[in-house]
Amino acid sequence: MKGKAEQAKGKVEETAGRAAGNERLTAKGKADQAKGDARAAKEKAKDAAKDVFKH
Fold this sequence. Notes:
Helix content is 93%, strand content 0%. With 55 residues, the chain is mostly helical.
């Protein structure tokens, strides 16, 4: 769930940065989204591994 939260936070920052014309905030938002994507993928892989080893 942390990955999804980070993605959402990044999207808000990116949108706010674009609206304000703030390139730094826009870039930070994109970076946070990328971190969120990576974290979500890691969480998904971890969950899949748990399912494999349960059976």
